[in-house]
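Structure ticket #2291
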Amino acid sequence: MPLAPIVLVIDENPRDAHLLHEAFVEAHVPVHVESIQTGTDAVCRIQGWGPRFAARKRPDLVLIELRLPKLDGTEVLAFIKGQTRHRTIPTLMFSSSLPERVQADCRALGADACLEKPDAFVGFGSVVETILDHLAHRCDDSNVTLHLPDV
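Resolution: structure written out below.
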């Protein structure tokens, strides 16, 4: 049985992870959306450190809010891309404000894309599309099967 891709959402507001999950449900795409609220928990989750995270599978894609407590989003991005075993994980930055300078800085650190956070649920459809594009490329090289609905 194929595994559903794991999308790790790192955002202090768990509501955004919930809205993203609902957008995947509405698109009929089976994806496991996991939510982490702080930068330090994100690093522990990705590394599998501590009893909360030791048995968890590596995420297939990481969506990081720029403004996080404890470690900010760019520090989490730099950590992921600085680790040989994690640098291939598609990593997307996510924020309500993404000036060109910030996007350039994130791309220089290895971000695969920078997405503006939607104001309403309707906008999460375009976030799902971008995530699906990145997951489709990742699925070519992993045991993850992405089942897309017929359009």
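Closing remark: The radius of gyration is 14 Å.
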